[in-house]
Specification:
Blueprint: E1 2-11, E2 17-22, H1 25-29, E3 34-39, E4 42-48, E5 56-59, E6 80-85, E7 95-103, E8 129-132, H2 139-148, H3 170-176, H4 185-190, E9 192-196, E10 206-212, H5 213-216, E11 221-228, E12 236-242, E13 248-249, E14 254-255, E15 262-268, E16 280-287
Antiparallel strand pairs: 1-2, 1-5, 1-7, 3-4, 3-6, 7-8, 9-10, 10-15, 11-12, 11-16, 12-13, 14-15
């Protein structure tokens, strides 16, 4: 049995925090969804805040018969850790304290047995540890963590930065579904925005947007397709879309089923080379707050 104690966090002088009263069921239910105990990669036990008693959560696990006898005096390292799932970031002060009160164990044959936690990495000497819950990462933030090791759009991980120097900004590479840390000129040229000429000068030009299906579904990212026929300082709207919403604009696309993690999106424009010999198109990718 693993015994965890939860306390409210009380703000102290100089920006410090100290443990307050034990969290009851009502308070804890808004801070912690569930707690699980993991040993060597396997989940042993899981409890929700409804199992709380006087600010303490008890997590029990029955291992069953061991595959081999345990000799007297032998120390077995189960590498226990506990995982907390929390919505505390939705609260005004998303912090609480937790301590491991004790670990107890018994044996099936009634022999003497003891268990302890010595000096664990996260809870040295059973001192209260302040837990601060951050909001979940957005898909784009997680993408940055994967490629740059940070969720923040700053420095070389900024949206407009070009980390790999291949001429495509990080945010556009997110849309392309390409690796922003490896220059991939040929791949970049085959995805993204492409002009498709018609059969002759009287046929309208089509546009193909070949982008990451996951990026297209991200509600924090907006994609806008624009065109200009003379002045590059004045762009007109073809269509725009935010996340998994509908396309809005003067030219709506047809979308093919996703393939290889990317979606093919086709726009048939009203531009005919015979009447508009010069035209420009661009794809604008924006991260929303």
């Amino acid at each position: 049995r693993l015994e965890l104690k939860f306390h409210e966090a009380v703000s102290g002088p100089g920006g410090t925090w100290t443990p307050g009263a034990a969290l009851g069921n009502s308070a804890l239910s808004s801070m912690v969804n569930h707690v699980s105990v993991v040993a060597n990669g396997s989940t042993l036990s899981s409890r929700t805040s409804s199992d709380l008693s006087a600010g303490t959560l008890y997590l029990d696990h029955q291992t069953g018969n061991p595959t081999a006898p345990i000799a007297p005096g032998v120390l077995i390292d189960h590498r226990l850790r506990f995982n907390i799932a929390s919505d505390a970031h939705l609260q005004p002060d998303p912090r609480f304290f937790v301590t491991v009160q004790r670990i107890t164990a018994g044996v099936l044959d009634g022999g003497p047995f003891s268990a302890g936690f010595g000096k664990p990495t996260l809870l040295p000497d059973n001192q209260p540890v302040l837990v601060s819950i951050l909001p979940p990462l957005t898909p784009l933030q997680q993408w940055r963590v994967t490629h740059f090791g940070t969720p923040d759009a700053t420095g070389t991980a900024a949206n407009d930065a070009d980390f790999d120097g291949d001429g495509v900004s990080n945010l556009v590479e997110y849309f392309y579904g390409t690796d922003p840390t490896a220059a991939e000129g040929a791949l970049n040229a085959s995805v993204g925005l492409t002009l498709l000429q018609g059969a002759d000068a009287q046929s309208p030009v089509s546009l193909r947007v070949f982008g990451s299906t996951a990026a297209l579904a991200n509600p924090k990212v907006r994609f806008t397709l624009q065109y200009a026929t003379s002045d590059l300082g004045s762009w007109n709207l073809y269509a725009t879309r935010t996340g998994g919403g509908s396309w809005v604009g003067v030219t709506l696309p047809s979308v093919l089923p996703p393939s290889g993690g990317r979606s093919n999106i086709f726009f048939t424009t009203q531009i005919k080379p015979e009447f508009t010999p010069k035209y420009f198109v661009r794809l604008k990718v924006e991260e929303l707050p």
